[in-house]
Specification:
The chain is α/β, with parallel strands linked by helices. It folds into four domains: 99 residues, Gyrase A, domain 2 (2-Layer Sandwich); 142 residues, Rossmann fold (3-Layer(aba) Sandwich); 101 residues, no CATH class; 177 residues, Isoleucyl-tRNA Synthetase, Domain 1 (Orthogonal Bundle), CATH 1.10.730. It is built from 20 helices and 13 strands. Strands 1-2-4-3 form a four-stranded antiparallel beta sheet. A four-stranded parallel beta sheet has the order 6-5-10-11, sandwiched between helices. Helix 6 crosses helix 9 and helix 16 packs across helix 19. The two termini are 24 Å apart.
């Protein structure tokens, strides 16, 4: 697989000498926050460690809003308290100016030197850019991209795959141990029909000409499925044999299992080709389907029944909840084992929780699953809590996502009303993106246009998804996705490629930070935004919210565009200013590159 390991890719070494440990890069926000908190404690000792409630501001670099609430609590005049705090603040190296505004707000301006020195420290930190590792990382098992054996992946699988992969990248970058789990649908009654057909037509999945492509594998499976379904629907004797075959499968009969494995293997060829197209890592070790928990199902039911968490009702083993009722007002149970002795999704999901908690030692479980399954997971998680498998130390969270809509605002379908094949959708995105790249390309070969078209097209699809909060529906509009204007990945990729072009044109002149220089308004705005990268990454990882990083990156590209328009780089007034602006360009590029990589999107050097 042609997968690119985003988080460990070696970036060019920065020009500055010396090393800088990532833990020592304190953001300007944190520096100002600490100074104001100290000043607040000095001015109002009874407040203890008070929060100045600092935020970025249009009126100054930062505004502190916490004094109003503190003054009210202390029955003090807020403006007088604000004036006392200002008198206690140490200014100079970081804070240039601080003034009281309105009823007791503080407007804080940072020194130009502090901005440049802070960026230089991030620059020296290589690919991490000053992003610290979490203080107490744990182990997260993330369940995402759950395709079904012998079935095509469709647009509904897209969101789970893209969101899940971005959360994996974010968590790993911030120090979490992440275990990927692709919980594929590889078990159930439908396999009786397929296996029986393959036993009676044993060469249907043979690869006569050697290796097959993902498309060929899916074509084979589709052909076999249609043929098996036709016989199943028309031949009662075949139907009886197929149903018997389900019993053999559940009993682990060797020939049946061997045939079942052929379907799984053929499906994996197809799955892996789709994930490769999505530029996403997947390995055999990550794929643990429903079948992987078969041996645990009996024990899961026994443990639930013995502990009284599950009870028998009409022959089925059920868990009841006070707050879950059907339209008729009667309780709707979670059925762990059916009255005929068969197991449903609940038994498998509960067994998976046991495995992930007790064998994989997970401290967090994340399920990137369609919002329509929220009730199921609410009941599964509550059952696991009652059983003691989840608790304050081990938490489960459904990262529920909304529906992919067409331009008309309705669920995305083909003109014939069919579910859209994921492969078709990705191919069209690459085709559209390639046309955009070809139109803009001045010095790219045909092979480079093809490669960039794939990177831009897949990036466009991912970014459109990730720039929307996961729980919201979003419209799939390829024209908008591959647009050079607006909040698209193409806009960000072109900003990155533009910077690389400037750095190439600079020739022998290298980026270098000059803290002694004054900064223009556009330079300051860009520098202050870059300084927030570590905090945004930490927030996006903690909240499983890639859209927060996407929003940050779009704003970064927009601020860079303003800087580029207002501040000549190679034609700046002095050699030091040229170097400093090249430095601002380069640290912006590195931040774009690393941020996009955390979203699973490539940043081509030339476009």
């Amino acid at each position: 697989m042609g997968y690119w390991v985003f988080c460990t890719e070696k970036l060019p070494e920065p020009e500055q000498n010396g090393t800088h440990s990532m833990a020592s890069v304190t953001s300007l926000t944190a520096s100002v926050h600490q100074r104001l908190a100290d000043a607040l404690s000095a001015a109002l000792p009874e407040a203890g460690s008070a929060d100045p409630l600092l935020r970025r501001s249009d009126r100054a670099d930062f505004q502190a809003n916490g004094i109003l609430a503190l003054a009210k609590k202390a029955k003090a005049n807020p403006r007088e308290l604000a004036t006392q705090v200002v008198a206690q603040v140490e200014s100079g190296d970081v804070i240039k100016d601080i003034e009281v505004s309105g009823p007791g707000f503080l407007n804080v301006t940072i020194t130009d030197r502090a901005i440049t020195e802070n960026l230089a420290a991030r620059y020296e930190d290589g690919a991490r850019l000053g992003v610290p590792v979490a203080d107490h990382p744990g182990t997260t098992v993330i369940d995402y991209a759950q395709p079904n054996v012998a079935k095509e992946m469709h647009v509904g699988h897209l969101r789970s795959a893209v969101i899940g992969d971005a959360v994996v990248q974010l968590l790993e970058f911030t120090g979490e141990t992440v275990v990927r789990r692709h919980h594929i649908g590889d078990w159930g009654t439908q396999f009786g029909m397929l296996i029986q057909y393959l036993i009676e037509h044993p060469h249907e999945l043979d690869h006569k000409g050697g290796a097959v492509s993902g498309e060929e594998a899916m074509s084979n499976l589709n052909r076999l499925y249609k043929a098996a379904r036709t016989i199943f629907d028309s031949d009662e004797e075949f139907k009886t044999r197929a149903r018997r075959r389900v019993v053999d499968l559940q009993a682990g009969e060797p020939e049946t299992l061997a045939m079942w494995q052929k379907f799984v293997d053929e499906s994996k060829i197809y799955f892996y080709s789709v994930f490769d197209k999505l530029d996403m890592e997947i390995s055999d070790a990550d794929v643990v389907g429903e079948s992987g928990y078969n041996d645990m199902l009996d024990e899961t039911c026994r443990l639930l029944e013995e502990s009284g968490v599950a009870v028998r009702s009409d022959g089925a083993l059920c868990v009841f909840f006070d707050d879950v009722k059907g339209p008729d007002g009667n309780p709707v149970p979670l059925i762990v084992r059916k009255s005929d002795g068969g197991y449903g999704y609940a038994a498998t999901d509960l067994s998976a929780i046991r495995d992930r908690v007790f064998n994989l030692k997970a401290t967090s479980l994340i399920y990137v699953v369609d919002a329509r399954q929220s009730l199921h997971f609410k009941m599964v998680f509550e059952t696991a809590r009652r059983a003691g498998w989840l608790n304050d130390d081990v938490k489960a969270h459904q990262l529920a996502f909304g529906t992919v809509l067409g331009k008309d605002g309705k669920p995305f379908k083909t003109r014939e009303g069919e579910t859209v094949r994921l492969v078709d959708l990705l191919d069209e995105a690459v085709e559209r993106a390639s046309a955009v790249v070809r139109e803009k390309a001045l010095d790219l070969s045909e092979a480079e246009i093809t490669e960039r078209g794939a990177q831009v097209g897949i990036g466009a699809v991912k970014y459109a998804d990730l720039s929307t909060s996961a729980n919201r529906d979003y419209k799939f509009d390829l024209d908008q996705m591959v647009s050079l204007n607006g909040d698209t990945s193409v806009y960000l990729q072109y900003a990155y490629a533009r910077i690389q072009s400037i750095l190439r044109k600079a020739g022998e002149v290298r980026p270098a930070a000059h803290p002694e220089l004054e900064l223009t308004g556009a330079e300051r705005a860009l520098g202050l935004h870059i300084d927030a990268f570590a905090e945004v990454v930490a927030e996006a990882a903690t909240e499983y919210a890639p859209h927060k990083l996407a929003a940050y990156l779009y704003q970064l590209a927009s601020l860079y565009t303003t800087f580029y328009d207002k501040c000549p780089v190679l034609k700046a007034e002095t050699p030091q200013q040229v170097e400093n602006r090249l430095f601002l360009c380069d640290v912006t590029a590195r931040t774009l590159h690393q941020g996009m990589a955390l979203l699973g999107i490539r940043t081509p050097e030339r476009l």
